[in-house]
Amino acid sequence: MDMEGFDRVDIELVDRDYFVTSERETAEENAVLFVNAFRRLGIDFADIEIENPCTGCPRKEHRIALGRISVEEAGNFGESIHNALDELEELRVLRKTLAAGTGIQSEQG
Questions:
Q1: Which of 29, 33, 71, 95 is most exposed, with minimal Cβ within 10 Å?
Q2: DSSP string, 47-92
Q3: Are the CB atoms for 24 and 51 separated by under 8 Å?
Q4: Residue 88: which domain range?
Q5: Taking the CB of residue 27, how many other CB atoms lie within 10 A of it?
């Protein structure tokens, strides 16, 4: 290819950050927070992904797509969430009971 007649343009080379926007970084941070919260409950969305903003449609923000889960997974996930919420409710009741001065007294030693 003959490049005669073209002036060389000195520009800096790009790296990964060239493609990463603050909106994408925010989406990644929130997705990590979301995934880790569910993993603490024993729930893992294997097909989760971050979708880029839609070009040519009204949606201009990143989206976190959970993917598809089976009927069995939905049941297991629901059970895990209910068990965690039941345990949390028990702790709330215990805290109220202890705050009211009734119930189990801690041993002083």
A1: 71
A2: T-EEEPPPTTSS--S-EEE-----HHHHHHHHHHHHHHHHHHHHHH
A3: no
A4: 70-101
A5: 19
Question: Is the pLDDT at 53 greater than 80, yes or no?
Answer: yes
Q: Is residue 108 part of a domain?
A: no
* Chain position carrying tokens 């989760």: 48
CA distance 50 to 14: 23
Token representation of residue 92: 């709330």
Contact of 35 with 48, CB cutoff 8 Å? yes
Tell whether pTM > 0.85: no
| Structural domain contains residue 92 | yes
* Residue 24, C-beta contacts closer than 8 angstroms, at least 6 positions apart: 50, 52, 62
